[in-house]
Amino acid sequence: MLAQIQRDHIDHVLAVSHSDDAATDPIHRSWVRCVHDYGLDPSRPTRAHIVEQAQLREHKDQIEEFLGVARTGMEQLYKRMAGIGYVLLLTDAHGIAVDFIGNDAWASELKQAGLYLGADWSEERAGTCAVGTCIVEQSPITCHHTDHFDASHISLTCNSAPLFDPTGGLLGVLDVSALISPASRDSQHLALQLATMYAQMVEDANFLRYFRDRWVLRLNSAWTMVDVSGEIMLAFDAEGVIVGANNGARRNLRPLQGGTDADARLVGRPLGEVFREGIDAIWRIARAGFVADRTALSTAGGEVYYGAVLPPRVAPRTAVPHAPVEHPVPAALKRLAGDDPQMQRLIGQATRLVNRPVNILIHGETGTGKEVLAKALHESSSRAGATFVAVNCAAIPESLIESELFGYTPGSFTGGRSKGMRGLIQQSSGGTLFLDEIGDMPLQLQTRLLRVLAEREVLPLGADKPVPVDLRVVAASHRDLRKLIAEGRFREDLYYRLCGAILYLPALRQRRDRDYLIDQLLAVEGAELGTNAALTPSARAVLHDYAWPGNVRQLRNVLRFALAVCDGASITPDDLPAELMAAAGLDAEETPPAPVAAGGGSEAAQLESALRRHRWNVTAAAAELGICRATVYRQMKRHGIVPPNQA
Ligand SMILES: Nc1ncnc2c1ncn2[C@@H]1O[C@H](COP(=O)(O)OP(=O)(O)OP(=O)(O)O)[C@@H](O)[C@H]1O
C-alpha cells in the first residue's frame, strides 16, 4: 500500500516527465530518461536489486588494483561521516556497489534500502539516484528524498562524485548516503563537497600508483600547496614526453600551439610544448629536489603554476638526463616521414628506443602505418638479423589464436598438424613480435601472454616443459586501451607490461608532409605497375587537401587506382576517385567507385556488397574499401555478417 507522500511523488514525476518543456535540471532530465528511454514506471516502485555473489566477484576483479587505492580513501572519509549517520558506497562504472562501509548494527535496513555491497544503482535499473545519474552526467550530484525516481527510495539522501582513470575514462562513483536526513536539500551540501574532495584524492592516488615508474610533475597555483595537493598532475617519461594527465591537467592545460580539439591533447607531447619555460626548466626542478626549489611555469593561457617533480617511485629506468644524447637516425625510420614536426618527434623518440629493453605500444588510427613503424623499429635494432613476426589479433579466429601464438606439440590439438607447430611467440625469439590490434586479444590469452612476458618462457599446448624465449614485443592498437580496461576487456597489468614506451602516430590529415608521402608512394606503386606517370599540379592539389579518413593506406590505394586508370603519362583530377573529386568541389562524371573509409552510416551494406562482389575474399574486399583485413573482420563481427558457408 503506497503512502500519500509516495502517490504525490509519482504524480509529480509523471507530470514532469510528460511535460513539453525541455528539462534543464539534471534530476528532471533523469526522470525523463527513466520514463522515455528505460521504460521505467514510477507507479510501480521496485525494491533495491542486489547482484549475485559471482556477478559481484566479476565486477570487483575488473578493477581490483583500483579497489585497494579507493579503500584507503573510503576508510578516511568514513571516519569523518560515520558519526553523523552516513554510509559509503564505491560503485564501478556500471553502478554496481563493489565496496561498502556502513554500521553493522543497521545491516538489514541498509541492505533493504540498497545501501549495500552488490547493490545495482544504475539509472536503468534503479531510476534516478545519485550514483546512476552521476554516471550519466559525469559530475557530482545530490539526490535527496523526492529527487529519486522510484517512490521506494524517497526516504534516502545520496551524494555521489565520479572517479576517473588517468586517461579520463569513468572508473566508478564514490557515494555518501544516509537512511535518515533533514528535509532540506541544503543539508547535503557538505556531504557532497566531502564526496567530491575524497573522489579527487582517490583519483590522484590512483594516478600516482598507475604512473609509479614515471616522473610526475605536480602543479598548483599556490606554491605552498604543491606538495599536499596535486591540483594538476602530468606523468612523463625520461624523454620528457607526457604519458598521462589527470583531470585537472586536462581541464586547465593546452599545448602552446595547436587550436583544434584533436591537436589539444596533452598525452604524447613533450612538456616543452605545454610550458613556455621549456623542458629544461622542468628538469631543473627535478634536479633541485622535491621540496627545495619550486619554479613558476606559465601556460598557453597565461596562467602561472608552481611545480614540483616527483621522481619514479619504482625501478627508475634512467637518471635525470643532463644533456640530450644525440643518436643518429636509422635509415629505416628516417624514410617514414618528410618534414612533419609530429612525425619528426616520433622518429626521434623511436630512435632512442631502438635498442632499449622495453616493450613498445603504438597508438594510431587504422592505416596510419603502425605495422610499418614496428617493422622499421625492428630493422633499425640489433635484432634485425632475426625474424619480425606480425600477428593480427583481430584477424585470427579466437579458437586459433592460442595455438598460433603458443604453438602445440604433436597430437595435442584437434585439427593441428601431426608434427606439432612452433608458435609465433617462439618464432619471434631473438627478433620482434608485433601484436597488432592487441585490444582484440581474448582475456584468457591476455593472462597467458602476461605470463610469457613476465617469465620469458612459453609453454606450447600439450607440452610439459616451458621453452625459454628472448622476446621483444611491439603492440599496436587503434582503440583506447584504457577504455577497454575500464570496461573490463583488457588487463591493466598487461597494458602496464606492454607500454614501456608509447608512440602516437598522427593521422594523415594532421601531417604536413603529405607531398613527401605522395611522392614516395607514387614511386613504389609506379614501380610495381611498371609506369612512371606524374601527377598534374591540380591532381596533387586535390590529394593534398583531402581529409583522408583512411590514412596512408587509403592514400596508397587511391594512387594505385589513379595509376591504373590514367593515360600512362600523367594523373589528372579525373583519374581520382569520385569521393576526392566531390570533396574538392569538382564534378566526377562516370568515375568508378572510390575506396571508402570505415565508419559510414551504410557501412554494413557497403561491406556486404564488397564481400559478395569478391566472393567473400576478405583481402580483396579490404583492398577495394581501402581498409585493412582486420577492420573488415571487425566490421563483419559488429554487423553480424557471416559468409554463406558459415551461416
Ligand atoms: N610512412 C609510410 N611510408 C610509406 N608507406 C606507408 C607509410 N605508413 C604507412 N604506409 C602504407 O600504408 C598502409 C597501411 O600501413 P600499416 O598496415 O602499417 O597501417 P596500420 O596502422 O598498421 O593499419 P591497421 O590499423 O589497419 O593495422 C600500408 O600499405 C603501408 O605500406
Automatic annotation (TrEMBL):
Residues 336-564 form the Sigma-54 factor interaction domain. PANTHER family: TRANSCRIPTIONAL REGULATORY PROTEIN. Keywords: ATP-binding, DNA-binding, Nucleotide-binding, Transcription, Transcription regulation. It comes from the Bacteria. CDD domains: AAA (cd00009). Pfam families: AAA_lid_14, GAF, HTH_8, Sigma54_activat. This is GAF domain-containing protein.
